[in-house]
Amino acid sequence: MADSAELVCFECELVLPLGDFDRTDDPSVIVTGNGPGAGDPVATAALWRFLAEHVYHRVELLGEASLAWERIGIDFVRIDGDIVGDPTLREYAEGAWAGAPLALRPRPVARAVGALVLRGQDRRDEGSWTAAPGDRGVLAPLLPLLDFGTPADVLVDDAAVQARLALARAAVAGMEGAVRRGPGADLLDFLESCLRVLVPALAAIGPDDLRVTPGSLAPAALFDVERALRLIQDFHGRDAGQ
Ligand SMILES: [Zn+2]
Q1: CA 6 to CA 21: how far, in whole Å?
Q2: Which residues contact 15 (CB under 8 A, 6 or more apart)?
Q3: What domain range is 23 assigned to?
């Protein structure tokens, strides 16, 4: 059976694909697009960089059937992925990934909201999440407000930061509005739990957190809240109710 191997750091939320096993009779050779991985200089450099960067972190080596994939959501960055802003393998290997200083910083708000999303997903999977008839109508005006996908490597100035902060505040206000529209008990509990994380996190972002020099990466606290909001949108389906 063909398979693949990927290294995942659960602390940095970073995935490094190593390659595939395409010879079912010889699973000892990992193959990249350039042949055996051991002879691929870019893949080899990326692997050594990953190992050096993530010593002491919780790193796992996953195959396609690994159950841990269920815990890996869209907040994880995939090296050589197909999302705008994902680093190429060469950018990662050469330390030329412009967004790394922001993308690899801890995101405590997204982590907390991600835990709520995982809990909700588990309940959906086991059939214990009850969707009320009015939930789609509650979510319809909210989901477009949660559309945060700006890559980490986008450079900002003060005006851009203020505009993004205003959108994050509007999204949280939208969640508060959704609570007032009377969702079912499970959606209400989910939204209120998320708001207990997001409202104080937004309130704690002060002028010092937002100060940037033009052409720098976005403030980490703001990026963290944006990623948390995107997790909520992803959980409820960005097109649901539209
Ligand atoms: Zn790490």
Answers
A1: 11
A2: 6, 7, 8, 72, 76, 77, 78, 79, 81
A3: 2-97
Region 106-123: mean pLDDT is 94
Tens-place pLDDT, residues 187-207: 999 999 999 999 999 999 999
Type of residue numbered 235: F
How far is residue 133's CA from residue 241's CA, in Å, rounded to a whole number? 12
- CA 13 to ligand 1 centroid distance, Å: 7
Q: What average pLDDT does this structure show over 29-47?
A: 92
Q: Is the pTM of this model over 0.70?
A: yes
Distance separating alpha carbons of residues 102 and 112, to the nearest angstrom:
18
CA 156, CA 79: separation in Å to the nearest integer? Answer: 23
Q: What separation in Å is there between the alpha carbon of 132 and the centre of ligand 1?
A: 40
User: How much distance in Å is there from the Cα of 77 to the middle of ligand 1?
Assistant: 11
* CA dist., res. 142 & res. 48, Å (int): 43
- Chosen domain end from 74, 97, 120: 97
What pLDDT score does 29 carry? 87
Q: Are residues 51 and 123 in the same domain?
A: no
